[in-house]
Amino acid sequence: MQGSINNRELRLLLLTSPRRAIRILHDQYYSALLRIALGLTHDEEASKDILQDTFHHVWLNAKKLGQDHERSIQHYLVKVVRYKSISHFKDTIQLRNKKIRFLNGRLDPLESSMESNMIQLEITQEILKIIAGFPPREQQCLMLKINEELTNDQISARLGVGVKAVERSLTSAKKRLRRHLQLKD
């Protein structure tokens, strides 16, 4: 683009040619808005998604935004990016708290909605992937404990090792799992 376009021209373009207006807004403000989102989320992929949502929001509201207003389009874009970044942060915190409650076995029985079930499935899949990277003994002990709900004595008999070895493996596996999940968040 050969120069910047002023606020009034942008608003007129949003009314007459929203696709072109959004392209211009994207070209002029994408880098600055990405820095704002990154500063709030510390997550590049989430920040890019936030910007995509922001420009989609502008597309959906082009007629309304095209009307005269005292505030600049740039100000509006910054506001939308900040709002979406804060919402992302809140959603991330809520998901992390659900993961923690799940790991602590404290999921409220009322949270058995479809969304909660999907989240639990995602968490379970994530945990199984993590466990797959554990040392074989820890992996075996933990999976027997989880899948077959065996006692430490039963795991000991099944694997042909001492009960203390099973206890150490389970303790180590649980610590490793907690540490890995805390690093991920």
What can be said about this structure in brief?
The protein is mostly helical and 185 residues long. Helices cover 79% and strands 0% of the residues. The chain folds into two domains: 7-96, Rna Polymerase Sigma Factor, Chain: A; 108-184, Arc Repressor Mutant, subunit A (Orthogonal Bundle), CATH 1.10.10.
Task: Describe what you observe in this structure.
79% of the residues lie in helices and 0% in strands. With 185 residues, the chain is mainly alpha-helical. The chain folds into two domains: 7-96, Orthogonal Bundle (Rna Polymerase Sigma Factor, Chain: A), CATH 1.10.1740; 108-184, Orthogonal Bundle (Arc Repressor Mutant, subunit A).
Annotation, overall tally of beta strands: 0
Number of domains: 2
Biggest sheet: strands, sense, closure?
none
- Low-pLDDT residue intervals, each spanning 5 or more residues: none
The chain-level mean pLDDT equals: 83
Q: Return the structural class.
A: mainly alpha
Order of helices and strands: HHHHHHHHH
Estimated radius of gyration: 25 Å
Judging from the principal axes of the Cα atoms, what is the shape? rod-shaped
Distance between the termini: 40 Å
CATH classification, class level of the largest domain: Mainly Alpha
Output the number of helix runs. 9
